[in-house]
Design a protein that fits this description.
four-stranded mixed β-sheet; 591 residues; alpha+beta; disordered N terminus; 23 helices
Length: 591
């Protein structure tokens, strides 16, 4: 029997039994609790295991598990007798989310009373296997085969990948490409934005094969853009791009918007611009709060636990007649950092003033409502376990991007303050950790790859903008973690972030400077042309001499009678460029 038909039948049977009352009594339920710092103390006092159900409000299989597995009488009986049941929305707790992201959503983690892990399970677990696992743990609480000891990490000495490491990671990317269905992944298909960004950089250096792979994947990913409302579905199953899961989460929206905008800046393909515009429209129409900050996600299901392919095949009127899937209206700092960066990137490529206004409005709201003393940021209005590195470092990136596209130094100041907070709160002996204190006193923080990639890249760029060695030191500290063989091996095809971070610390960014007054239309046209140049890392500045020196006056630009642009490397600069259309030619020469 096909799995979807089986689940639909099982769902109806469970609703029938659990919706009924037995002898007039309410059916038993699981007493779900939030995660707390005292959860293991309580477990020891009550002699119970801790069962963590880590899910997401947008997650289809989380809804199915809630409606079927966690309403099964045997499962309820076992949990209520021997477990503390803890339910957490993973978007609300980056500490738990990053720790267990490889296990699903839903992820099921069982702990002993001392905080040691006994079992970790990925995805939906039907009632019988769940009851079997719960009973087996009661009978023998020894850690199961899902618990594999992680080798301890020693601090590294190299702040860069070796040539051999680089070639190994590049080979992994080439070898794992799917020539039949396009893209990467044999079961789930989604846009790996790091791979596309890295391949675009290689294409600019003349690698036509990697250019082809990137453009094929961008074309395939466009099938996951909602044809009615816009926005990007999270992924497709069955190893192709034709079976989408319909949740729309912020990171997917933001990074797809950014990558399609950057692709358009390079290849000028109208389809890439249209993709970026459709994602931008979805953000504006569905995920923008009345105050201008951004919500978190939209659910995959109209009715929780029921697959929604039929619903999403409808047109706008048909969908709205039946209702709109739930929007998660939490406003998280990290998610807004992703969105602000993407909108500022979209503006830099298109000149769409509305996108820039949306980015700045969201940034101002986050500063007013999520800022912490010292330059960092809370995740939500109140943080149970924060602060978290992700909120602060992704806002560092967003503020630096806003400075780049506006030449307003207030955003550079904000980026510096946030980076300094990250250094003070999250630096460890090895890299930067997602949270500062052990979880519930038992689970120590450990560095996360994606966040250390972000630290390495943004602080390296911040060093170039400011000339301050402290940011270079931050970048190299993160890179020493990323360069450890034990860290960059065994990541499947998800290795492009290592290569991007290595590029950032190994070579200076493309440096474009406009010299001229900010009320001069000619200078503004040059600045717009500079912003639109394709590059992974790009330092764009606008020097109006009436404002004083640039933050990092490392190039002695000449005084001229009219506005001019300059394209510089670490070794030389172009002659003054007065025609915006000629900037691209000089950029191509500097590759």
């Amino acid at each position: 029997m096909p799995i979807r038909r089986f689940l639909s039948f099982a769902f109806l049977i469970q609703i029938f039994f659990h919706g009924a009352k037995v002898h007039g009594a309410e059916p038993a339920k699981i007493d779900w609790q939030p995660w707390s710092e005292s959860i293991f103390e309580k477990a020891q006092t009550e002699h119970r295991f801790v069962l963590l159900d880590l899910g997401a409000v947008w997650c289809h299989w989380c809804h199915v598990m809630d409606e079927i597995t966690y309403r099964d009488p045997k499962v309820i009986e076992l949990i209520n007798a021997s477990y503390l049941a803890v339910r957490v929305d993973q978007d609300s707790r980056p500490d738990l989310s990053l720790r267990y992201e490889n296990y699903g959503w839903p992820a099921t983690v069982v702990f002993n009373t001392d905080g040691t892990e006994i079992a970790k399970r990925q995805g939906y677990i039907p009632p019988k296997p769940m009851a079997s696992m719960l009973q087996a743990i009661i009978d023998d609480p020894s850690p199961g085969p899902s618990i594999v000891a992680e080798p301890p990490l020693e601090p590294g000495s190299s702040a860069a990948l070796s040539d051999a490491q680089r070639e190994k990671l590049r080979k992994i990317l080439r070898d794992n490409y799917d020539p039949k269905n396009r893209g990467w992944g044999t079961i789930q298909k989604f846009l790996d934005w790091d791979i596309i960004e890295y391949f675009m950089a290689e294409a600019r250096r003349g690698d036509r094969e990697l250019e082809r792979l990137a453009r094929e994947t961008l074309a395939a990913q466009r099938r996951l853009i909602d044809p009615v409302w816009g926005g990007v579905y999270q992924y497709s199953t069955d190893g192709d791009w034709r079976h989408p899961h319909f949740e729309k989460i912020m990171q997917m929206q933001a990074e797809n918007l950014r990558i399609y905008a950057e692709a358009f800046s390079f290849w000028k393909a109208p389809a890439d611009l249209e993709a970026a515009q459709r994602i931008h429209g979805y953000l504006r129409d569905f995920l923008t709060s009345p105050e201008g900050a951004f919500f978190t996600s939209q659910d995959a299901d109209l009715q929780q636990g029921e697959h929604s392919a039929e619903y999403f095949a409808l047109n706008n009127a048909g969908r709205r007649k039946r209702g709109v899937p739930r929007i998660d209206r939490h406003i998280y700092a990290r998610e807004n950092g992703w969105a602000i960066n993407a909108l500022a990137t979209f503006y830099s490529v298109t000149g769409d003033e509305r996108a820039l206004a949306e980015a700045e409005r969201a940034a101002e709201w986050i500063i007013a409502n999520r800022a912490l003393p010292g330059g960092g940021f809370r995740h939500d209005a109140e943080d149970a376990g924060g602060p978290y590195l992700g909120d602060t470092i992704y806002l560092t990136r967003a503020f630096l991007k806003l400075h780049a596209v506006t030449a307003d130094r207030k955003w550079l100041d904000r980026a510096e303050e946030a980076a300094q907070f990250a250094e003070a709160k999250f630096k460890s002996e090895i890299g930067y950790v997602p949270y500062a204190q052990s979880l519930a006193g038992k689970l120590p923080p450990k560095p996360h790859v994606d966040e250390n990639v972000a630290v390495a890249r943004v602080t390296c760029l911040l060093n170039h903008y400011t000339g301050k060695a402290a940011y270079r030191e931050m970048s190299e500290h993160a890179m020493r973690f990323l360069a450890l063989p034990a860290v960059n091996e065994n990541h499947g095809f998800g290795v492009a972030g290592f290569l991007l971070a290595n590029e950032s610390v190994s070579a200076p960014p493309l440096h474009l400077t406009v010299v001229g007054k900010k009320d001069d239309p000619a200078a503004r046209a040059l600045f717009a042309a500079a912003l639109a140049q394709p590059a992974n890392d790009k330092r764009v500045e606008w020097w109006d001499r009436t404002e004083g020196e640039l933050p990092n006056p490392d190039v002695p630009y000449p005084e001229l009678a009219k506005a001019a642009a300059f394209v510089c490397t670490d070794r030389s600069c172009s002659a003054p460029i007065f025609d915006p259309a000629k900037i691209s030619a000089f950029v191509r020469r500097k590759k």
